[in-house]
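Exam prep: given the inputs below (a chain plus adenosine-3',5'-cyclic-monophosphate), describe the expected output before reading on.
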Amino acid sequence: MASNRTFTMLKPDAVEAGHIGAILNKINEAGFRIVAMEMTQLSTQDAQAFYEVHKERPFYGELVEYMTSGPIVAAILEKDNAVEDFRKLIGATNPAEAAEGTIRKLYATSISANAVHGSDSDENAAIEGAFYFGKRAQF
Ligand code: CMP
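Solution:
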């Protein structure tokens, strides 16, 4: 059965451009409930650990550098079929390929500065949510 939670980060480009409010509004309008949320800045160690699965990819260094370049907003979101529905709401990883009306089509500028992260599976949603929020509280 699909889990009802996913994890997101509003990335440094979206935060820097002043899009936090507009993006959270779209998330709420799409029927997601914000269960936990924090604005923070990742250290290099944090970003390396979070993106460990991509460590062998050629863009890993660029990804870590970018994700530590400014504040991000991390959140756990709740809705039926959360992982799949949120990935539809944000659109393709590359904003050039994202569907009209999706968050990345509206707010992302490139494949690395792509405005938002969304978990790609229920398993990763749980791991990623715990990465930020697991130590302080049980949601
Ligand atoms: P995200 O959903 O946060 O998960 C991994 C990230 O790696 C992805 O969003 C992109 O921002 C980034 N990424 C994926 N492919 C590339 C690429 N070819 N070049 C740069 N960054 C990439």
